[in-house]
From TrEMBL:
Lineage of source species: Eukaryota, Viridiplantae, Streptophyta, Embryophyta, Tracheophyta
GO BP: any one term: floral organ development
Major site of localization recorded for this protein: nucleus
Organism: Manihot esculenta (Cassava)
Protein known as: Uncharacterized protein
GO molecular function: DNA-binding transcription factor activity, RNA polymerase II-specific; protein dimerization activity; RNA polymerase II cis-regulatory region sequence-specific DNA binding
Domain named MADS-box: residues: 1-61
Amino acid sequence: MARGKIQIKRIENSTNRQVTYSKRRNGLFKKANELTVLCDARVSIIMFSTSGKLHEYISPSTTTKQVFDQYQKTLGVDIWSSQYEKMQETLKKLKEANMNLRREIRKRMGECLNDMSFEDLRGLEQDMDTALNVIRERKNRVIANQIVTSTKKLRNVEEVHRNLLHEYEARARDEDPHYGLVDNEGDYGCVIGYQNGGQAPRDMFALRLQPNHPNLHSGAGSDLTTYSLLD
């Protein structure tokens, strides 16, 4: 069955286009190799895909530079010189731009002002005022953000403090006999539990307690019971 003739036009589907490129590239390189072996020709092929990937074929024992040198000699042109001239022109423009930038920087540092006219100095002053306003606005935004962050942290700390204080007060009011009151400046070796609804001194802490051994007895006529601290 004869193959249908393929219409030569751009393949719209990107996948099919890449497959066709790969197949025909390999076929072209195969033909170039056959031409090199059969005819002792020097062949150089350089190809770029749509993605920018480089593919090349160079005859064995031959370099791309040798092929281009022979090409220039045969046609009487010098592509390297023209390329060098373009590079030199680009380098010159870059140097001029660099010198202008350095000059502008020195002016903003208060240097190289003697050759400037009054209008130039006035324009430079306006430019620096504009830049200063931008810097101040940025600085104020940074300070404002820091204040907001610090305020949020402070609120979190205050909330934790309130929760701890609320928990402490709730335990202090609790009638659970396992909680007693300890004088902040007294002896922490023992804890005094107040009985009969006695009022505790102001500077006290509520702690988890455990009664002493049952054989422990209080002093005669005392209304206080002594507890030992938990381990």
